[in-house]
Specification:
Blueprint (H helix, E strand, L loop, with lengths): L1 H7 L6 H26 L17 H18 L4 H19 L1 H6 L10 H19 L11 H5 L1 H20 L3 H6 L4 H9 L7 H6 L4 H30 L9
Helix pairs in contact: 2-4, 2-6, 3-4, 8-10
């Protein structure tokens, strides 16, 4: 059964990554469900506050990530122990990244507007891992023919060119296109050739003396956010809970 699964469902050697991804997504979903129940005061769940100190779930997440990561390195291979440590690591990563915004801001911003960054990071991480499981290789290596792989010069040129597109996309503020473009180079090319996002490093440096380009970038950014951000936030609020209203005063 195991041989049939690895031969027909997932590439050989990627089963630990698939299990880690599955445990990552499940842990995140379960954690968000529990935190929403705690916020609403429903169910048996409560915050862990020994001695009045609120223990965030990023703490056990770090512990599980350390155990899973070092354990996987220690056992190596693709045996049962490696699978178990992969699951443990995925659980830890799900707990840690669910509070990514807290780590970034060094403040409890879980239910604030800044807390949305955690959701975005989790979704982006899951998407990248899913692409790797599906067989995508970084910087377009999976698209290189066997003959080109034998020619080191052609391979290096391919890697460098695709990497430059990724860097330009990131400098233009196209974070999602840049990161996913590491595995799907055409997306990095799209991000690199389009106008930079307002406020990005590329916009501040290269559009400073180009008022027309700066105005076009502002208009395009406004239209993009008006079209997509509102719907994305509605989905986040529906699935993950709306953030708290900012306090007045």
């Amino acid at each position: 059964m195991d041989h049939w699964f690895t031969r027909n469902i997932v590439e050989p050697g990627k089963l630990p990554l698939l299990l880690s991804l599955a445990s990552f997504v499940v842990t995140f979903a379960v954690t968000r469900t529990i935190t929403r129940l705690i916020r609403a005061g429903r169910g048996p769940f409560r915050n862990v506050t020994p001695g009045g100190l609120h223990i965030h779930h990023v703490v056990p997440g770090v512990v599980l990530s350390v155990i899973g990561g070092f354990g996987a390195v220690a056992v190596g291979g693709y045996g049962a122990a490696a699978m178990l440590f992969a699951i443990v690591f995925g659980m830890g990563a799900g707990l840690v990244l669910d509070e990514f915004a807290l780590i970034l801001h060094l403040d409890d911003v879980y239910w604030t507007e800044e807390g949305r960054k955690s959701v975005e990071v989790v979704v982006l991480t899951a998407a990248l891992l899913l692409l790797v499981v599906a067989g995508f290789a970084p910087l377009g290596v999976n698209e290189v023919t066997e003959e080109e792989r034998q020619n080191r010069l052609e391979l290096m040129v391919t890697l460098v060119v695709n990497f430059l597109f990724v860097v330009v996309a990131l400098l233009k503020g196209k974070l999602r296109l840049g990161l996913i473009g590491v595995l799907v180079p055409p997306l990095a090319i799209v991000g690199a050739v389009r106008l930079a996002r307002p406020g990005s490093l590329w916009s501040r440096r290269l559009y400073a003396h180009r008022p027309r380009a700066r105005a076009r970038a502002l208009l395009r950014g406004y239209r993009h956010d008006r079209r997509w951000t509102r719907w994305g936030r509605r989905v986040q609020d529906l699935v993950l809970g709306a953030p708290d209203e900012p306090s007045q005063g």
